[in-house]
Design brief:
The protein is an alpha/beta fold. Helix content is about 40%, strand content about 15%. The chain is built from eight helices and eight strands. Strands 1-2-3-4-5-8 form a six-stranded parallel beta sheet. Strands 6-7 form a two-stranded antiparallel sheet. The protein is globular.
Length: about 240
């Protein structure tokens, strides 16, 4: 959410916010400008959608999808800055930030990179240890967060391919991004009710799910989110915000 920049628009945030319970709002380092972020926060508050800070590497040109070899101190400061900026804009809209989720390359790097995972955890604790941490099950990020007292929330992805190790397929590889709403909804239902998902090689891997992500920049994002919501609801799954 909030990934448009000036006159350049990305995603239909208003429509998506009618379907979701939580919104990962860009904080300006990979996407978003202050007015776009503020507008997205206002729309979230109006719909009682929880606001999360989607923090990223300082990589506006690469949309935060490239690794940045920052020091732990520099990355921690960057993340504190991003959370603080969104807190101010959310507060001005009558809302508040309730959780943090890394974006793109930072998300994937924090699965295994000790220093960068610790930088995310340190930043959250220094700003507000009451903020929840959203991340990939089995990652160093969630392990470190849990060890240091943060509430961790395990995330699954509706529209991304999984490797046999239950990590996300690189966007440079075939099968990384899914587009068919019916297929996506069926996969999510299986993840939520059975705890399994089919990997790109056809194997079946286990996933722990507290929250399901749909990327707002996908061409069929609204259709996928609607299909997921309708199928889960029809199968008796209650949808609530995790914070």
């Amino acid at each position: 959410m909030g990934e448009s920049f000036g006159r350049w628009e990305l995603g239909d945030d208003k429509a998506m916010l009618d379907l979701v319970t939580s919104a990962n709002i860009a904080c300006g380092f990979h996407a978003g400008d202050p007015s776009t972020i503020a507008r997205t926060a206002r729309w979230s508050v109006e719909r009682r959608v929880r606001i999360g800070a989607q923090v990223a590497y300082r990589d506006l040109a690469g949309f935060g999808r490239r690794f940045v070899d920052a020091s732990k101190t520099e990355l921690t400061d960057d993340i504190v800055y991003q959370i603080g900026g969104l807190q101010a804009l959310a507060g001005a809209a009558g809302g508040r930030v309730t959780y943090v989720k890394p974006h793109g390359a930072l998300y994937n790097t924090a699965v295994h990179h000790e220093e960068h995972a610790q930088a995310v955890v340190d930043a959250i604790i220094s700003v507000d240890p009451g903020l929840a941490l959203l991340g990939l099950p089995g990652s160093r990020l969630l392990a470190l967060g849990e060890q240091q007292g943060l509430r961790v929330v395990r995330e699954a992805f509706a529209d991304r391919g999984y490797t046999p190790k239950a990590t996300l397929v690189s966007r440079k590889e075939p099968g990384a991004v899914l587009h068919d709403p019916a297929e996506v909804a069926a996969r999510v239902l299986r993840m939520v009710t059975d705890g399994h998902v089919e990997a790109v090689d056809g194997s079946v891997v286990s996933v722990d799910v507290d929250s399901v992500c749909v990327h707002g920049d996908s061409p069929a994002a609204i259709e996928m989110a609607r299909a997921v919501r309708e199928l889960l609801t029809s199968e008796g799954v209650d949808l609530e915000a995790f914070t």
